[in-house]
Amino acid sequence: MRHQLKIARWAHVLSAGWVFFLALLIIADVLGRILFLHPIAGTKEILQNSVIAVTFLQLPLAIYSGSMLRTTILLDNLGPRAAKTLRVFAWLLGAGLFAAIAYASITPALSAIRLGEYEGEGAMRIYTWPVRILLVVSCAFAAVAYVSALIADLTGKHGETPSAPKPAPKSPAGANLT
Prior knowledge:
By secondary structure, the protein is mainly α. The protein has a domain at 66-116 and 127-156. The chain has five helices and two strands; from the N terminus they run ααααββα. The chain has helices at 2-36, 43-64, 73-76, 80-115, 129-154, and strands at residues 118-119, 126-127. Helix 2 packs parallel to helix 5 and helix 4 packs antiparallel against helix 5. The protein is elongated and about 65 Å long. The model is unreliable at 160-168 (pLDDT under 50).
C-alpha cells in the first residue's frame, strides 16, 4: 500500500501543477482578449478536458486519506459492528463503481485512439484520447484504493495510513485554529 500511496501523492502533485498551468492559461487568454483582441486558440477545449483530468487525478489520494465525501450521521449512531459492516459495504460499493467506470471507459478510450478523436475546430484541435486513457487508469486506481481501504478496515488497520487526516489543533481557549 505504501507504493500506491506514493503514486497517489504524485498524481495529486501532477494535478496541482496542471491547475497552476490552467490558471496561467486563463490569465494569458484574458490578457490576449483585452490587450490584443486575440484570445489563445483552444483554451476552451483545453480547459474542458483538463477539468476531468484534474478531478480524476485527485481521486486516489482522496480515498487513501479518507477525504471522500461521506455523511457520518448514521455511522456515528451505530455500534462498532454495524458501523464496520456499513463501512465494508461502502468500500465494496466504491470499488465496484470505479471498476465499472474504468471498464465502461476502455472501449471509448481505445476508439478515441484509433479514430484520432479530437475536440475543437479550426486552428486548434485537442485530442481526447489522453484524457480518456487517464480516466480509465485513475478509475482503476481508485477501485484498487477502495479495495486497499477495505483490506485495511478488515484487518483492523483502518485509519493508520500515513496520509490519514489528523485532527485540527486547538488553541488553549478551545477554538479550532483551522
